[in-house]
Automatic annotation (TrEMBL), chain A:
Role this protein plays: Catalyzes the removal of transit peptides required for the targeting of proteins from the mitochondrial matrix, across the inner membrane, into the inter-membrane space.
Statement: the UniProt record of this protein carries the keyword Disulfide bond: no
A Pfam family matched in the record: Peptidase_S26
SUPFAM superfamilies on file: LexA/Signal peptidase (SSF51306)
One GO cellular component term: mitochondrial inner membrane peptidase complex
Protein name: Mitochondrial inner membrane protease subunit 1-like isoform X1
The UniProt record lists the keyword Lyase: no
GO molecular function: serine-type endopeptidase activity
UniProtKB/TrEMBL annotation, chain B:
Similarity annotation: Belongs to the peptidase S26 family. IMP2 subfamily.
GO molecular function: serine-type endopeptidase activity
Name of the protein in its database record: Mitochondrial inner membrane protease subunit 2
Keyword Aminoacyl-tRNA synthetase carried by entry: no
BP GO terms, sorted: protein processing involved in protein targeting to mitochondrion; signal peptide processing
Compartments in which it is found: Mitochondrion inner membrane
GO CC annotation: mitochondrial inner membrane peptidase complex
Annotated membrane topology: Single-pass membrane protein
Keyword Chaperone on entry: no
Domain of life: Eukaryota
Organism encoding this protein: Punica granatum
Amino acid sequence: MALRNIGLWAVEGFELAFSLAKFCCCIHVTGSYVMFPALAMGPSMLPTIDLNGNVIIVERASVWLQKVSRGDMVVLTSPEDPNKQVIKRIVGMEGESVTYLIKPGESDECQTIVVPKGRVWVQGDNIHDSRDSRVFGAIPYGLVHGKLFWRVWPASRFGSMCNV
Amino acid sequence: MSARSSLWNTAKKCVTIGLIGVTVKDRYVSIAAVRGGSMSPSLNPVTDEVSGSRVSTFDDYVLVEKFCLGRYRFSHGDVVIFTSPTNHKERHIKRIIGLPGDWVGISHIDDVMRVPEGHCWVEGDNLLSSLDSRSLGPIPLGLIRGRVTHVVWPPSRIGRVKREIRQPTVPSY
């Protein structure tokens, strides 16, 4: 009798673990192929994303369908630290030419470059306080993870991020 | 009615298996085919060292583990698979020669450079026919998709992929 009970518990425990594993798999697949939430903070994207932190839904489809273009905001792995993800705006796709200020606020010195094949040029909206392609150069497209899609927090700025 | 429910059950099982498979492939292990001879003789050996004849006409299939992606800790001599920095649809398999802060030599222009923070220097084992950091420059660690640990196919070549520490080609002064 006791043995049978233990057996039942084991079966039940196994079933519970299996459904938990399935749930985790669902979360992983949704997060890597459809969309994931991101907490964005820091000064580099002012005034589009403010300092206190925004919760933003990031969608993946645009990146693997190659539908991202100039002006989109994207999440990417920092080329300087693979454990860090940053949000920047795409300023130039491959083959486009980009003109940027070398030292904004100090001089009007400009530089124009052509973005190499397979790479994108990203910059923060706040050019005075942003570590971006002006520091580390154009980044490989493989580092781009997703495109900012919808802001869910703060509630006062709830809405699409596609044309901001 | 029962046919419909059995169809539904089969579909549910397929979706579950698919979800688990994709998760395992993304987070734990996957299999990749090796194309080309840039990693010869470790992978896809072109010729046998003794007899000089071609060893096998089939491509090697390798096991790629993804646990190393948790913290991006790599060591010298690891064979890694990474997305090409010039074409995000291509994957390359190369050996890590230099990690951030190392000095590596660039043989064709006789110069040394320091591998920048968050990057690594990769080279193929077959230096004569390999498109690697010597022409692409340092690779961001964020592009690495896994570490190659074993050859799993063809059966005659099953075995571990050895970690070989090769000195970076620093020119002598």
